[in-house]
User: Fold these one by one.
Assistant:
Number 1:
Amino acid sequence: MNKSSFKKIQDRKRMWLFAGVILLAISGLAGIWHFPLQHYADQENLSRLITFVRGQWWTPLAIIPTYLVANSLLFPNMVLNSAIILTLGGFFGWACAIAGSLTAASLFFFFGRRFGAGRLDFMKGKRFEKVQKFLRKGGIGAVVGVRMIPIAPYAVVNTAAGSIDLRFRDYLIGTFIAHLPGTLTLAIFGEQLENVIADPSAGNITILLAVVLLGIALIWGVKRYARKHIENAETEVTRDDIGK
């Protein structure tokens, strides 16, 4: 099996995993209305819980430290984004997730810029060097490609980006664009999920499923573009290595 085929299989696995998480959430929500937990998951209790979490003054303040600690431990950023958005709900959760992701991305970028590749031996490895080679091609597209087809953990990509001559503006814009498909899908899903909680009608549930399917299609399309960009960059990198 060649590298291209392996990457496509991995991407399909990630897509099905994302879809599975969303569908599991929907199934769980439907189930608790019909089983003993329904008393704790009725409209009033769930609305009260959402209001409580959003109403705490310390909630926004805890987001940035949470992302910094999680990235330091190489915790998957996509999982953290999903948890934040679905817990805080809709576009408030989306704003918090984007703020946390971009802050962590910026901090680790400048960490890499401050120390440079020569002083980051403890992080070096095949993945670190591969990220550097792709990002050296420069531009927003390279950043989006690396983000959408994860080659290495979030913090490793951030540090590798900072350790080379990559413009911070391109890096930040590319990171933001790469986060949009998944996080916006989750945000819209979260908003519609609240509608389902308030009124679990067939119409609202249908809209919820439509949001999931459209989100999956959007993410698939962006990932396909990113995969092609990465494959082209990989071909150029291989040619450069052969020419040396």
Note: Residues 3-243 form one domain.
Number 2:
Amino acid sequence: MVLDLAGTTSKLVNRVETHQTFIKQQRKYRRDGEVFRRTVEYNSQNLLG
């Protein structure tokens, strides 16, 4: 049971961290209320990557 609890806690923490990263990325590409795409491609290359 202790291992299951530790594994579940680890998964939950990972999901929260992933969600926080997603929110930070959304803010990064937001300006004046407009949400920009995460990729800008030119000659099949991602200019934002």
Note: The radius of gyration is 17 Å.
